[in-house]
Amino acid sequence: MIDDRIGVLELLVSSQLGGGPAHVEDVITRLDRREFAVTVGAPAGGPYMARFKAVGVEVVDLATNRLSRGVLGAVTELVRARGIRVIHSHGKGAGLYGRLAARRAGTAAVHTFHGIHYAGYPPGARAAYLALERALARRTHTLIHVSASQAVAARPLGLAPAGRARTIVGGIDAAAVEARLHSRARARVELGVGPTAKALGTVARFDPVKGLDVLLAAAARLPEATLVLIGDGSGAPGLRRLARRLGVDGRVIFAGARAEASRWFAALDVYVSASRGEGLPLAVLEAMAAGLPVVATRVSGHVDTVTPGETGELVPVDDAAAFAAAAAALLGDPPRARAAGAAGRERVRKEFSAERMATEVAEVYRQAAASKV
């Protein structure tokens, strides 16, 4: 029997907990299997490998998080063997392998930027990265940006070329977030937050781009607040040392990486994100869906989600004093915080639907599959 469905390869740089795999899960869960045959390729070892399998798609171990000609060969062979017509890559390594394999196999490439992170590179590496991305853009049917602000930032960099770039705003299943919330009492017990404590919290990869050092510095200015950090990563030892140096280690809870971390959001009074750059932060959307006011940095992604004075506040990057002041204002005014949380929940329901996102991505797949490569 001939399978005339559109073969799609979702190529990721990680199967660990994070925004990219969560985004892909939300999309592929909603694709019509009568029209699309989906394969996911990602490095093994993370919990999302099992989650992708549970959705009912084929999952292949591909080490897209390291440079190797063998990986490029494996991706190309997979594309040819499965009759893949669209390769959709997420992340730098996957973006390189996906677009080179698409060229080799004569298939269409789609790439999503989940944030454009290169500011921490040395000057020469920045130039090389941008030059490579511009070259790959010319081999890409569609470049997807997950927020309008990211698309605006990408244009002067040459990463949103006319005719090839499209903004598909990220989304979540807000109803599912609300349904799986633990009670406040249970969430606080499981996280170790005191029953009467004023609690700030965030979910993040422990990486410098997430600005967790700023949150620790802000916590030092909020002596009555508890800070909950949900996540993990290579930066964990340094953050623990910084917490001790600032004298806040007794008020900072390192809760570890947790699947569906939003389950514990009822333990918090304010959600905080000090990122130095974002695409569209799914954890912020989930916090809003959980009814939390948000204090976040004024960067791409955040400016698309948080409305100052309505759903929370935006503060300058790397400004611990401003962060502390904004958080203190919300913690000290519970009625205002509740109103901001309610407004955020309503905004997510209306504007950041996973269903709408998946519908728009499916249309990109149809157009890419029908194109002449």
Portion of residues in beta strands equals: 15-25%
Radius of gyration: 21 Å
Kindly identify the CATH topology of the largest domain: Rossmann fold
How many DSSP E strands? Answer: 13
Kindly state the percentage of residues in helix.
40-55%
Largest sheet: 7 strands, parallel
The CATH architecture of the largest domain is 3-Layer(aba) Sandwich
Span between termini: 26 Å
Number of domains: 2
- Give average pLDDT, whole number: 96
Spatial arrangement of strands, main beta sheet: 3-2-1-4-5-6-7
CATH class of the largest domain: Alpha Beta
Q: What is the tally of helical segments?
A: 15
Tell the overall outline. Answer: globular
The assigned structural class equals alpha/beta
Outline the low-pLDDT stretches: none
The CATH superfamily of the largest domain is known as Glycogen Phosphorylase B
Q: Please write the string of helix (H) and strand (E) elements.
A: EHEHEHEHEHEHEHHEHEHEEHEHEHHH
